[in-house]
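Chapter review: from sequence to fold.
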Amino acid sequence: MKLTNIGKIAIIVLVVGAAALLYNYFGPQIKVLESKNVATIDVQHDDVNVTTTSAQAALPSEAVSTASKPLINISGYAWNAQSGIIAANGGPRTTQGSLMEKNGINLSLTRQDWLSELRNNQMKFIEAFDQGKDFPAEGSAGIMIMGDGAPFYISSTQQALDEKYGKGKYNLKIVGSVGKSVGEDKLIGPVTWKLNPQAAKGAYISTVIGDGDWVVAVNWAAINGIKVNPDPNTYDPDALNFKAAKNDDFVEAAKEFITSQKQELEYELKVVKNGKTTGEVIKKKIDGCATWTPADKMVFDEVPGVTDIVSTKEFNNQMPCVLIMPNEWCKKHPDVVGGILKASLEASNQMKQYDGWRQFASKAVAKTFNSETPDFWYKTFKGYSEIKNGLPINVGGSQVMNLADNKKYFGLAQGETSRYEKVYNQVSNYLKDLNPAGFNDNVKQITPYADVLDLSYLSGITGIDEGTATTANYDRTASALVGKGAWQINFATGKADIMANSYKTLQTILNLLVQAESGKIELYGHTDNVGNAAANQTLSDERAKAVKAWLKSRGIPENRFQAVQGKGQSEPAEDNSTADGRTKNRRVEVVIKN
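The token string follows.
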């Protein structure tokens, strides 16, 4: 019997679930997924946000277009970063006078908050296309998700496509970005985590594992030297622990946190140490969640004592809203793909300049998502801060992306390198190193970065004023701590020459710094206590400067460094009486502040 695509996905889910049960209920000392420290950091020299100077376009009608064009469906999360494509369409269906209609497109935009259903929608479309339908009514030609969740989504879906149709017959491609998150996606938890990140060790956090908000939390853990437990069915008191949200739904992640806190609901988990169960069982409430708007507001309204710990405001290049489509269908209809992108980027251009377009977009978003009010989406698009239960909180925060933003972000503009490549590769490393929820046991390989993009449709767009890039302002003193982590960077004995075995660590640091492009950097060198204290002070200074020089050679500008100095042997992290302790004391601390 030939299994359907949905059947195969269901079997994968059952296999993962069965493996999780074995992990959770077999006797003590069974080998389980081990908590690990992960590497991360890459922040570029300026932000991706372009000013434009085009004339104001007429706002479209709210009446549905009557143009006789084939209907195309694109589905995506309820997410303000989609405001540009929604405004271009005039709402959930292409309207009269809209930019989509003017570009010859008839588009349906569908809200879908379940990652599993987004996958099913795309698989249904490809199945109908394989059966000879040119513009299938089934499923979705494109899906819009967080770009940092693309390694997880594309790799798992690509495997299902290869198994169903044969390797390489159908391939998913990212064709561009319509926006990005700049604060909306966040880790929420007790204020103690913000004051002292190490207080989050042992935390239990609800989220969609493998998706972008999980990445926000993992990035933060990496910067602060906190281990990550990749197994949602065990509990490590020395790591961040994650609960998989029901239905892979970001709203459910928030609801489960709220319920656990308000109803004292606890979950039974086996305790692990160093990748093995200890025989102990713990009952644990959910301590926080990683989610986005409108779920962040739900949490702040319901749970006292919590605030946003870190967000895409700090990692402002981490999370583009990418459009993923089947390559073979796109190649057959390049004008349609180009028209969708052109209309979306034109609308984004208008929203950057004119409040009337932002107001119209908010109305169209409320109608498309069938949620909240236009005023809610207008306010949360920009993002706002307030005091809630005596604590400062931040809600929302998104940006639309025009053509110039896309060219800069993906490295198509002259003199630019791809910021997204660093994001994609960083998250791919997380999946490989952590194996979250048994990912590597079920997905044979992560699709390489070189195979996931087709930017030809962006490159082919003409007739748009691309504007002038803005420059990030680093002429300030940053004080708000984003993260502080000690990185084991190896140097030649008694010298400041970086050893080759540390280049991967340095690349990880660079990757995090690119994602947190608005942050300023402090570097502190440390030594063990072997030798003369004065000589160690000089050596630690030189080693901090060596790391700075490496980062500068790869694009981090001088004015992002607000402190580069050595601490000598004065602040040991471990006991200098052991060889292991001395090794850990020979380190460089990287601090990011906003």
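Two observations follow directly from the output. The radius of gyration is 24 Å. The chain is about 40% helix and 20% strand.
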